[in-house]
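Technical annex, item 7. During the second reporting period the consortium partners agreed on a shared format for inverse folding records so that results from different sites could be compared directly. Each record opens with the tokenized structure and is followed by the designed sequence. A conforming record, contributed by the partner at site C, is shown below for reference.
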């Protein structure tokens, strides 16, 4: 039986801007571009060089910010955050950025990722007198930095604190006089640096740069700490990179197709995955279709190689939000139809290849297969443009145990029966790896975790969430 759980989700997105007269407004638009990375909360902290001001709330960017509140966020420097929680930890207090005030100056932090030693660090800090107000990993960094006292520079204290962290993290940190950026030594999360007029910006994805008219400069290096202030941009390695291991799901699912990650466009990468899938699983069919939106590029690539026509066999509604009230199975199924519908004129009487980006719990693939059959498809062949996900992720995805993963408990033939497809195929790890030039984290497919902190990860995430 397939578990009825939410779909695959990423944790959040971060943005920062330095030296722009309308920094908060720039951040607002950038967060719109990053909205796909988190829909549970959003926040902006802005400074005029003297005071840090904050506005945050639960919901979408458009829910949290009004024209009136934006006018109150005056300043030339800002950071922003969109949030998706893992571990089921919600609440206003966990919405970022987090703002800390002290006699030595204010500090705001926004974080993307998940610390695998968060639980252990919290225990030590609490024993030393720290009192935590949130479940966010960003608060741990603030406490660690404060423990160094006032003798060293702020940057030195931050880098010392960062060296104590394990797992994945992309931080943007704002004070009255500087913007700081930090990426974990494996580069598990995406983070890019750009310029905007006389100032600078940093974002989880380059699609944010396109909307605000910023120029991409480079990706932040694994283990790099960047200071941006009145003197310009200065980067230094605070922890030697162990190896590059960007989360492979960024290419497969999370990132927007118009973003570029380490020199490769996401749409192009997904097309290549679809082409590799076609060479591994050529199907005799009439139509190729993709699941909107993240699978369309792979479906196009599959069609190009096989010569089977690509069609919009599935349409996604742009005006439906999350369906919270679903008290029965029949209403849950109706909720799926509200969000996604099959185009009868395209699939009726046809042998359909349905390309999807991933198969996590299997429920979505089963429902879409059913939709296509109800619309008259004579055959439905489900092909997945990534390998089977058999292992939990401890770096920011909401797959925290094998209980949620259908491939951890069933072989491909069993999954085919559960999904109700005529055939089912997954791209192999070897063929997927051939598509990319940069190093990737493949832990959810292979079980080989870059940090090797699996036991700590389980303890951390089960105990506190992030």
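Designed sequence (site C submission):
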């Amino acid at each position: 039986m397939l578990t009825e759980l939410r779909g695959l989700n990423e944790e959040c997105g971060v943005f920062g801007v330095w030296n722009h007269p309308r920094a908060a407004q720039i951040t607002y638009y950038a967060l719109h571009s990053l909205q796909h990375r988190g829909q549970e909360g959003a926040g902006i902290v802005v400074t005029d060089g003297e005071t840090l001001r904050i506005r945050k709330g639960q919901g979408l960017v458009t829910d949290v910010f009004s024209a009136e509140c934006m006018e109150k966020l005056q300043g030339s420097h800002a950071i922003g955050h969109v949030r998706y929680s893992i571990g089921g930890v919600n609440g206003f207090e966990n919405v970022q950025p987090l703002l800390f005030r002290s006699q030595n100056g204010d500090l705001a932090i926004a974080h993307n990722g998940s610390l695998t030693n968060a639980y252990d660090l919290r225990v030590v800090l609490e024993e030393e007198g720290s009192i935590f107000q949130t479940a966010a990993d960003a608060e741990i960094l603030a406490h660690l930095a404060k423990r160094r006292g006032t003798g060293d520079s702020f940057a030195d204290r931050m880098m010392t604190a960062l060296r104590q962290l394990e797992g994945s993290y992309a931080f943007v940190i704002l004070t009255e006089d500087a913007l700081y950026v930090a990426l974990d030594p494996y580069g598990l999360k995406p983070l890019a640096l750009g310029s905007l007029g006389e100032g600078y910006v940093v974002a989880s994805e380059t699609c944010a740069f396109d909307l605000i008219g910023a120029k991409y400069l480079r990706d932040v290096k694994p283990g790099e700490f960047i200071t941006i202030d009145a003197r310009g941009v200065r980067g230094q390695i605070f922890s030697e990179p162990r190896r590059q291991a960007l989360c492979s799901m960024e290419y497969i699912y999370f990132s927007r197709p118009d973003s570029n990650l380490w020199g490769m466009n996401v749409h192009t990468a997904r097309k290549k995955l679809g082409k590799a899938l076609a060479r591994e699983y050529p199907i005799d069919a009439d139509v190729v279709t993709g699941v909107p939106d993240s699978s369309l590029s792979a479906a196009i690539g599959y069609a190009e190689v096989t010569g089977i026509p690509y069609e919009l066999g599935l349409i996604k509604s742009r005006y439906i939000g999350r369906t919270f009230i679903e008290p029965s199975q029949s209403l849950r199924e109706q909720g799926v139809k509200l969000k996604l519908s099959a185009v009868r004129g395209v699939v009726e009487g046809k042998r359909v290849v349905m390309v999807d980006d991933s198969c996590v719990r299997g429920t979505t693939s089963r429902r879409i297969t059913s939709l296509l059959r109800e619309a008259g498809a004579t055959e439905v062949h489900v092909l997945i443009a990534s390998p089977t996900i058999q292992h939990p992720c401890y770096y920011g995805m909401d797959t925290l145990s094998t209980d949620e993963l259908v491939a951890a408990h069933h072989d491909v033939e069993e999954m085919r029966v559960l999904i109700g497809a005529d055939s089912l195929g997954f791209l192999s790890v070897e063929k997927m790896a051939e598509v990319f030039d940069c190093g990737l984290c493949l832990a959810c497919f292979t079980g080989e975790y870059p940090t090797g902190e699996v036991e700590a990860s389980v303890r951390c995430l089960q105990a506190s969430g992030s």
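The chain has two domains: 12-245, 265-449. The first strand starts at residue 12 and ends at 18. All partners now use this format for quarterly exchanges.
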